[in-house]
């Protein structure tokens, strides 16, 4: 009889057998997969594991602090936290093409990760939160022609040529099983139940140029939106919900004055795998409440719209 407790025990034995007394490095992204992989591996080999968290400056508001707090303070995992936001935002200056944003962030991420790894004196193994669907996808990706709509950059995924042996303890699991394993490991619901978040972060939720100021505006709107979703008890019914800061300004009225500020679009979808998605049917009352809060509380936004496009033909992200 297969249980998550049994999987956990077996996985720990397998990790110990593979790693021996070697050193393991794991890139943490704040997402479910790399988080669960890190906690599982830490349980198996303790201080032989070092995690590297690269802050690219386009995380959600408060996310970095939460990752550092959780892994360092709660799980006692050795964690290198590198704030590389100046570097990333500097290189994103003037970049408006979505694919160039992804490539810029992907390239810098690898550079910074390699730098941090070198500072640690290298390692014998690289841990990754690869899941079963990722394994299938990379096999089928070599099996025939396919259409690439977006060059997915995933901060957990590092290039083959990093020459370390891989530790991938989640390779046999689906997403819901990874969540269950995380719970079995005593991880907080705010991590195991978290919505997927793209590797390039808020950079692909700011069509047009990404600046520090625009990132901050979006972080505020996004935080209000998610706070209201959680308060309404809707978070777990939704696959992904986020705000997008549009490169469009509209005229509005505030008190006696005219405003001319940015438009924000809200997105929320249901999905089982991200391949297809339906719009989440919020009530008008909910949407108008969120809109009022964002316009009142976030300087720089004076109009809010709700994206009602399903996938296909739309994609979940705007870029
Ligand atoms: P789309 O927008 O293609 O997104 O419908 C499908 C799922 O993939 C996520 N996504 C990404 N994840 N790097 C990632 O790690 C990326 O570059 C990227 N682009 C999209 C998106 O959030 C959704 O869950």
Automatic annotation (TrEMBL):
Pathway: Purine metabolism; GMP biosynthesis; GMP from XMP (L-Gln route): step 1/1. It comes from the Bacteria. Its EC number is 6.3.5.2. It catalyses: XMP + L-glutamine + ATP + H2O = GMP + L-glutamate + AMP + diphosphate + 2 H(+). Coiled coil: none annotated. The keyword Ligase applies. GO terms for molecular function: GMP synthase (glutamine-hydrolyzing) activity. Catalyzes the synthesis of GMP from XMP. This is GMP synthase [glutamine-hydrolyzing]. It comes from Teichococcus globiformis. The gene is guaA.
